[in-house]
Amino acid sequence: MQREVRQGVAAVSIEGLTKEYGTLRAVDGLTLAIPSAEVFGLLGPNGSGKTTTINCLTGLLKPTKGTVKVLGIDARSDGLEARKIMGVSPQETAVLPYLTGEENVRLFGELYSVPKKSLRARADYVLEKVGLLDDAKQRVTKYSGGMKRRVSIAMALVTDPEVILLDEPTVGMDPQARRAVWDFIVELRDEGKTIMLTTHYMEEAEELCDEVGIMDHGKLIELGSPNDLKTRYQARDMEEVFISLTGRRIREGE
Amino acid sequence: MKLGHALALAKKDWRRIFREPAFLFILVLFPVILTIAFGTSFGAMGGSQITQFKIGVVMLSGNSSASNQFSHDLIASEAFAVSYYANNRTAQSALSQGQLQALVILPSGLDQSVQSYRAHPNDPGEWTNTTVFIYLDKGSALTAQAIPNMLVQVLDQGVLGAKSAPEATPLSLSVPSEVEVQGNSVFQSFAPGLFAFASIYMIMIVAQSYTTDRETGVLGRIMAAPTTGADIVMGSVLSYLALALLQALLVFACVYALGYHPAAGTAGLAVGFLIITVFALCNIGFGLITAAVSKSAGAATGISFVFLMPQLFLGTFVGSALSPTAQEAGRFLPAYYVTDALTSLWTRGAAATSPAVLTDLGGVVVSSVVILTVGVLIFRRMATG
Questions:
Q1: ipTM, 2 decimals?
Q2: pTM (2 d.p.)
Q3: Which of A54, A86, A131, B10 is the most exposed place for a label (fewest CB within 10 A)?
Q4: Does the beta-carbon distance from B217 to A62 stay under 8 Å?
């Protein structure tokens, strides 16, 4: 399954991406283009290659083959420039427990060279958006799992990035927090940001995503809007689509 | 490399050191507790008293009979291990490098003086007076107190042949170098080692810090930001150099309060602190190597002892109680050069520009830069896919 890449349009373009670990091919010739100002959901069972794809985009992993571009910048040959325009919230919460929520957010603002004058205001803005402004001065070690996830998202967004990669952004959140994050993601999309997220919550994909790609065994096996896919597979919801494509067998973790 | 990024990461590390109880204890409180424990345990004359003094002899009188007699009597006393030097300069150098505890300069007129005494033992008017110069290790109370008296005994009863201690002789002893005796103790020989001892534990903390950040995804997240490997390493270097300086100041305050008063001026103190601070680079390097080969923070703690223990035992108490073989083995460890330099500078009062100190400084700088470079290269290979 491939999607045509139109030069100059795609915010994220991936061509023939392959990542091998020894004999294991984690991502197998993935080709994908995500237009600007879209929420794109990358779905798939554990071990299907979603996080590996994101890690290739962020430069944490070197692809075995293929090209990965973010707003036309090659993430492999010009990784530093590509990383400047991306905000990343990884699968692990990846927050620093000995810092406060605000210090975590500001640290990443400084690493992305956000000017000091605007950093405080921007940090407060994203913390408020994820519902953490009142707890921003507390150390993260005192946060619940959901709060850590929200501060992780705030860290990704403090730089006001053009392309946002969220790897399972709402894991462990209560319904209220999840709803707040969803609203924020939609708001960002409406501002013209491109969001690529992975999730195991099918209702999240259905609610948020303009388009989803379903991966299995490192390959993209289906692509389309949630409504299109439901129609195509005559399914009531995305979970039925997902199960019909990937089966019922329980997979090992990625 | 961007300095702003490095400073942001250094600030993060600094906060971690002071906010995580284990880090704070090992890096800040432990050195203080250790120093106080050593100071109070070894503050009095203890079990490692010197049994044989290392003494250098310069015979300006040549191989005269009096000089040979003196030399023979020194060796026969079994209280001295004697080394001979061709001139004052090389002998002084050996003394300042800690190879000797005392230096005796036998004057050219020694024979004449001895003969005049033997010919007229009871007629001082016939004597040819001369002076034997003694230079002493400035930092050793034991040396300062014991050696002059022992040398007088050898000169009077051996060289001059007096049967009992005479009231007067034509030989006078002069101690040109000022000897500071301020109630020093065995602690003074341990004190320089405490600085390296405190710093070495940085290996464990750096390793734990990097492995924890890798396990929790924090390191990956930092690497996914527009940072370079140089930013990350420089962040660690800045934070741990500052910490090393803080450790050194704390340990210095403790040893000073416990009676170790360095025999050094401003330059000697500055070079000493510089050496301790540079040594932190080496510990960061070992920490990175440990982190690279450790799969978890727990494993890093254990593996760090591979680098920590040899430096601890062979590099921190140079010359105190180690066998000659162990002391030779210590020369392969950076900590040895730190302790040796501080001993030369602060205990023996050697000049900051003396060959011994410069050699040690060179050893610390070169080994630290090499180890840090190796650490960075290995860690980079292991941290990226």
A1: 0.90
A2: 0.75
A3: A131
A4: no
